[in-house]
Amino acid sequence: MATTVQPAPVQSTGKGMRRPIYLAGEWVESDRPLDVINPYDGSVIATTFNATPDQVEQAIVAAERAYQTLRTMPTFERVNLLEALADQLRRRRDEMARTIALEAGKPIRDAEVETDRGVFTLQIAAEEARRIDGEVMPLDLLPSSKGRFGIVRRFPIGPIAGISPFNFPLNLALHKIAPALASGNSIVLKPPSLDPLTMLLFAEMCDAAGVPKGAVSVLPMSREAGNALVEDDRFKLLSFTGSPAVGWEMKSQAGKKKVVLELGGNAGVIIDADADIDYAVGRVRTGAFAYAGQVCISVQRVFIHESVYDRFRDALVAATEQIVMGDPLDRATDLGPMIDDKAASRSQQWIDAAVAEGARVLTGGKAEGRFFQPTVIENAKPESFVCSREAFAPLVTLFPVKSFGEAVAKVNDSEFGLQAGVFTNNLEHGLYAWETIEAGGVIINDIPTYRIDHMPYGGVKDSGLSREGLRYAIEDMTEPRLMVLNRLESQAVR
Fold first, then answer.
1. Would you say residue 10 has pLDDT above 70?
2. What CATH number has the domain bearing residue 326?
3. 489 noted as active-site residue
4. 3-class secondary structure for the chain?
5. Of 165, 265, 349, 450, which sees the most CB atoms within 10 A?
């Protein structure tokens, strides 16, 4: 079983502190208090507020007004703004990482990585702001178009509605804010109710960096109040990261606006007969159990060639049993608590159901309060919840396969298609996987959990629509507009 360290004394974190919300550059409160709970010890970190419908309306009006400033802001000013935000985040790295660890239960080492990725996301957004270009195109391809040519530029589309999830409370929100500012759009962000303090801290950095008032609002809110972000036509794009059921429902309610959905998955991994087993075991261990499996591209299903199945299984079980569970602020901790009691309870129910259907738990399988032991399962039925749905828990299921082709077919036997990982030293197998696996990304010789923030990221099937990654998000947040110039022969210089 995984090792559990004893809880360290919890340092003072401002318990009882009131944290205003950020409405169009102003710090405000409401009559709807929201306690933010530390998943590790159940203490109240701070009390913030859910925005009222009137406050959401004020943010939308301010976003419309700020858009008129942002859309004509020179490129160098947008670049300077994003670089200033990156500098603010870099200088307050430790404070931000600690906030993430406290309210999200993310181990401090992982919280530091997320903060560093946030800096990188802002830096790349600044670079991409410099590269929003267009083209000059000849139009005189027919006699009737003689003397004509076209110029295409990309223009910002208008206020953006962003809804971000709890598992990466900083960086996934920045994947909405950074491209919005880079492309000259304002944004109203609904951060997750379970860990909103992270983005409220970032809102302080927006103030310090000189973000125009109304360009960014960070408003925790109820699902009912958040309906305005989905349904209001003053928003020109909805960017949502979260569960598939919620995301697809939002799309049906979004009207004519663009919709970007980055939803869940049950990511598959293939271990080929010639794979480097020791390397693959270490990477699968990381991909399955990082942040207690609460990652959209967490490794959930592993299809292993039967010739190396026993070796891979035994090595993964041994590696899993070395994982240290404990206080997220303890640097020795590998795996912290799940986000709340409901998440741990659901994981237990799904594993118990899989066992009742014949699955075998090789290690783990039990909830310990909000903690859930890192779990390895074999012989699960493909239609069981631990295989067919997004587990969002520290569990991984193993399956032997007779051939690489069978493994690819089983990866595709899913309603989801976010990313997949393939460990192989056979070039033809790697190319076949890339051409055949139904997913937004196929990662060769690494886990599907791999992501660097400028790459196109998103899924197919129930895993979503469109792509995140700075340049790709900017394409969604802008529209190409054509100007045709007709050189009249009567006005030609002679």
1. no
2. 3.40.309.10
3. no
4. CCEECCCCCCCCCCCCEECCEEECCEEECCCCEEEEECCCCCCEEEEEECCCHHHHHHHHHHHHHHHHHHCCCCHHHHHHHHHHHHHHHHHCHHHHHHHHHHHHCCCHHHHHHHHHHHHHHHHHHHHHHCCCCCEEEECCCCHHHCCEEEEEEEEECCCEEEECCCCCCCHHHHHHHHHHHHHCCCEEEECCCCCCHHHHHHHHHHHHHCCCCCCEEECCCCHHHHHHHHHCCCCCEEEEECCHHHHHHHHHHCCCCEEEEECCCCCEEEECCCCCHHHHHHHHHHHHHHHHHCCCCCCCEEEEECCCHHHHHHHHHHHHCCCEECCCCCCCCCECCCCCHHHHHHHHHHHHHHHHCCCEEEECCCEECCEECCEEEECCCCCCHHHHCCCCCCEEEEEEECCHHHHHHHHHCCCEECEEEEECCCHHHHHHHHHHCCCCEEEECCCCCCCCCCCCECCEECCEECCECHHHHHHHCEEEEEEEEECCHHHCCC
5. 265
Question: Is the domain of 60 the same as that of 101?
Answer: yes
Q: In this predicted structure, what is the pLDDT of residue 12?
A: 36
Catalytic residue among 112, 128, 206, 296: 296
Residue 86 domain flag: yes
Domain ranges, residue 435: 268-444
Q: Which of 128, 262, 390, 468 is catalytic?
A: 262
- 384 and 278 in a common domain: yes
Residue 296 a catalytic site member: yes
What mean pLDDT do residues 380-407 have? 97
How many domains does one find in the chain? 2
Predicted model pTM = 0.94
